[in-house]
Amino acid sequence: MLKLRSFIFAIGYNGTSALAGLIAVIIWPIFPYSWRWRIVTCWNRFVMFWIRICCGVRFEIIGNKHADHFPCVVMAKHQSTWETMFLQYYFGPVSTILKKELFRIPFFGWGLASLRPIAIDRSSPVQALKEIKKKGIERLQQGNNFLIFPEGTRTPVGQVGNYARSGADIAISAGVPIIAVAHNAGECWPHKHFIKYPGTIRVVISEPFQTEGKDRKQLTEDVKNWIEGEIAKMPPARNDGVRVLTENTAS
Q: Which of 2, 31, 113, 220 is most buried as measured by Cβ atoms within 10 A of its Cβ?
């Protein structure tokens, strides 16, 4: 049954992503950015609805997005595809760091390009870091929030990656606060696994971390400790109580 439900979800997810990308291309020269991101991220909201209907994956939010502190740098745990869908609209308008290769994906990549992301070339790490800082500050000055996953890549449930300091560096340089986001989405939507597991994803949003006069190393460590501490306190997301996938449960 899980495979069937996940298959139905995949059909809707992939089919509508192409449609959303096509719409993004059509409206790009017609609507201003403030309208484009609202229209395009309707797809993100649809994905949240569709995964609840098909796979029984719900979510609850603890804390709020602190709109009084926008623009800000959002630093979030990265376990799954789910949080990329959710955070894109919840903290919108938001600019996200993406690999340039994603823009080559027909429709889907075109839709991403319309949302003022920061595209980087990972083959040149030093240049990529400079570009992230420069463009990140520019986006914040334009009124966008800036979303960064400090671990750089998705980390399996129960593991902690190396938290890069670039998010804190940008926030300090731009004079904006940091809002940290902890969640356990990887338990219900595991990375690189077809099956989605029913349950309730918990999303915890921090109070703003003020950046004035702060050191980027200590600030990054503070954010890391907060995120990982909140995740450690979370109950299992999946209805069956399983947290970490094994090869047997992943099939």
A: 220
